[in-house]
Amino acid sequence: MTAPADTHSPAETPAAARGKRPKQGEPVIDRALSLLAVFTDRRRALTLSEMARYAQMPAPTALRLIARLVAWGALERLDDGRYVVGVRLWEIASLSPRGHGIREIALPYLEDLFEVTRHHVLLAVRDKDQAVLIERLSSKQATEVAYRVGGRLPLRSTAVGLVLMAGADAAFQEKILKEPAETEPGVAAMPEGQLRRTLSDVHRTGIAMIRRSAPSLTVSVAAPVFDAQGTVVAALSIVVPDGTTPPNVLAPAVMATARAVSRNLGYRAALAEDVRTLSDG
User: How many C-beta atoms lie closer than 10 Å to residue 225's C-beta?
Assistant: First the structure.
C-alpha cells in the first residue's frame, strides 16, 4: 500500500512545515504532544509530511520526535509508511480515574439499561469546555449517531453536555453562555436566553433532552452522575429513534440508572446541597 498523495498546495502549507524553526524555547514535550494532537476521528492514519504540516513543524524536527514516539509506543508505523496512535497511549489513558474508573463502576448499570432499550447508552465526562464520551453501548440495529468512544461532544447541543454544564459552577456557565452558539448539523443553535432557561430546568429536574435530525432522527435523554461530595462527575444518557418512545417515558429509567451509579460512587442525596462539577484544575 502506498502513502496517500499530499493534496495541499504550497500556499496552504504553514510556514513552520516549510522549514521555519520552532518557537524559541518551546519545550520538546509540547512539540511531541502537538504531533499526537493532529490525529482526529477523520485523520486516523497520517504521513510524516501530513503530521508536520498539521503540527506546523519542520519535517526534520517532526521525524526526530516521531521516531521517539514510535520507540515509546505512543505511535505505530504502518507498512505503507503512515502513522497511527499507538496502543500504549490507550493503556495509559485507561488509568484515568475520571474515565476508566467511573466507567468500570458504571458499566454493569449501563448494560442493564442497554438491555431495556437496545439502542445507544452513553457515558460522558467534562474536559474543560467539552464533553468526552468514555463509553457507548450500541446494538447492531441502533440508529446512527455522531459520536464515538473517546470523541468530544459540544456542551450546548447534546443532552450529556447540558447535564454537565448545568452541574458546573456559575463562572464556567457564564463563560460558555457568552460564547457564540455552535452550529452543529441536526440541532438548532440555542440562544443565550433559551440556554439559561434550559440549564435552570436541567438543574431543577435532573434531566436533559435533545432532539436531533442528523445524522439520524433521534432523541437523547440524560441525567447526572454524582460522586461522594455531590459533584457532577459524569452524565449518562440513552439515544433512541425519535418518535419510538416519549422522552418522559425514558427519563425515569435514565435517572434510576444514574442514581445507582452515583450511590456506588459514594453519593448520598443529603450531602449534595451544593451541586457542582469538577474544576478544570
Answer: 30
Phi, psi of 148 (to 5 degrees): -115, 165
Regions of the chain where pLDDT drops below 50: 1-20, 271-281
Angle of helix 170-178 relative to helix 192-205, nearest 10 degrees? 150
b/e for 136-157, b at 16 or more Cβ within 10 A? bbbeeebbebbbeeeebbbbbb
10-92 with 97-277: one CATH topology? no
- 227 and 265 in contact (C-beta within 8 Å)? yes
Backbone angles phi, psi at 216, to 5 degrees: -155, 165
Q: What is the pLDDT of residues 2-20, one digit of tens each?
A: 444 444 433 334 444 444 4
**Secondary structure of residue 213 in the 3-state scheme:** coil
pLDDT of residue 77: 93
Q: For residue 270, give the DSSP letter.
A: G
Neighbours of 167 (CB within 10 A): 27
Residue-level pLDDT at 100 = 61
- Per residue in 33-57, pLDDT (tens digit) is 999 999 987 888 999 999 999 999 9
Which CATH superfamily groups domain 97-277? GAF domain (3.30.450.40)
pLDDT at 21: 52
Which helix (H) or strand (E) is 236 found in, with range? strand 231-241
d(CA 136, CA 85): 21
Residue type, 184: E
Nearest residue to 166 via CA among 223, 109, 95: 223
Q: Return the CATH architecture of domain 10-92.
A: Orthogonal Bundle (1.10)
Query: Pairing mode, if any, of strands 120-127 and 83-85?
Result: unpaired
pTM of the predicted model as reported, rounded to 2 decimal places? 0.68
Q: Which three cell numbers stand for residue 71?
A: 520507540
